[in-house]
């Protein structure tokens, strides 16, 4: 089982002010670049095709966050197998 398979490529988070924030990748389309807005966000914000919107693009660094049960399983495995993991890391 791959742990990261269920992580979406576009997520909603919060910005520094606590406001909703859509996280998405910039994609090339023809000679332009696009950022998509998920349908549920369009509906929540009452936005429609053709509406004008404004945004300030900001580079975002993301990292995966493990679900609590996966993190617990990892911690237990690490305690039992730390020496072996460290040995493999040096290979």
Q: What do you see in this structure?
A:
With 91 residues, the protein is an alpha+beta fold. It has one domain (8-54, 65-89). The protein has helices at 39-44, 68-89, and strands at residues 11-14, 20-23, 27-29, 32-34. A hairpin with a 2-residue loop joins strand 3 and strand 4. The longest helix is centred in the C-terminal third of the chain and has 22 residues, at 68-89. The protein is elongated.
List the helices and strands and how they pair.
Blueprint lengths: L10 E4 L5 E4 L3 E3 L2 E3 L4 H6 L23 H22 L2
Antiparallel strand pairs: 1-2, 3-4
Summarize this structure briefly.
With 91 residues, the protein is of the alpha+beta class.
Describe this protein with a few key phrases.
single chain, two-stranded antiparallel sheet, disordered N terminus, alpha+beta, elongated, 91 residues, 4 strands
The tally of beta strands, per DSSP, is 4
Helix/strand/pairing category: alpha+beta
Distance between the termini: 23 Å
In spatial order, strands of the major sheet run: 1-2
Shape: elongated
Order of helices and strands: EEEEHH
> What portion of the residues fall into strands of 2 or more residues?
15-25%
Work out the radius of gyration: 19 Å
Number of helices: 2
Largest sheet: 2 strands, antiparallel
Q: Quickly count the domains.
A: 1
Helix content: 25-40%
Question: Low-confidence segments, ≥5 residues, pLDDT <50?
Answer: 1-11
Mean pLDDT: 82
